Amino acid sequence: MNHSVIIKSFPNGISVYLDAEAPYEEIAEEVRVKFTESAKFFKDARMAVSFEGRELSEAEERKLIAIITECSNLQVMCIVGKDDVKNQVYVKALKQSERHEEEHYAQFFRGNLKEHEVLETDRSIIIIGDVYPGCAVSSPKDIIILGGLYGEAYAGAGGDDGHYVVALEMLPEKLKIGDVRYRAEKKKRSSRNKLHPRIAYVKSDRIVMESITKELLREIQ
Fold it and tell me: Partners of 136 in the beta sheet?
């Protein structure tokens, strides 16, 4: 097979140089071979791809991308050129993808928070355990406690009140979502009721706590 396909890397992506004179089917087959051979090198990297050297139709581009993802674990984030202006598009696309993944990725913590412990995270947090009085958990996104919330919780710590706190038993000392504060009455915190899953979220500029139902979850979403 001739060298009708050459793969080169540059910051934030890879360029696939295609022979302008070679038949498209020959190009497609060599792309299959080249990316099969380099699958271990790319692993599951996330990159933007630039096709250089010849004009491709949208259908031809789609076919080459399908071959690349089929023959390797490379995740193609976008298709652009490699000049300085378009290289900025590479960076922006990759960063947007990373942010999207972070938004949908939650950190897990297994155990109880006690003895004035404080847990802070930069993602949503799922706690498998209890948050005892005098302890606090803070997240710029959502907080889910598979146990009891008896201490403090701060969701939307960056000031975004579109987040929520969920607990199987919710009797917090203090609760804050975005810039909206909620203080539990001492009478309510003095005794623990039986297990009663609830969700706290902001509605009409105040924090409300309600029992979790399918209808409520759909409303919040």
Answer: 118, 152
| CA separation, residue 199 to residues 19, 24, 78, 124, 144 (Å) | 59, 57, 38, 15, 9
First to last CA, the chain: 54
Query: Is residue 81 a contact partner of residue 50, using CB atoms and an 8 Å limit?
Result: yes
The pLDDT tens digits for 180-220 are 998 665 545 444 445 678 999 998 899 999 887 766 666 65
Handedness of CA 72, 75, 81, 84 (dihedral sign): negative
Q: How far apart are CA 87 and CA 90, in angstroms?
A: 5
- Beta bridge mates, 202: 207
Q: CB neighbours of 38 closer than 8 A, spacing ≥ 6?
A: 7, 72
Q: What pTM value is reported for the model?
A: 0.52
Neighbours of 21 (CB within 10 A): 8
C-alpha–C-alpha distance, residues 192 and 199, integer Å: 17
Q: Are 48 and 79 in contact (CB under 8 A)?
A: yes
Q: How far is CA 92 from CA 44, 47, 148, in A?
A: 19, 12, 41
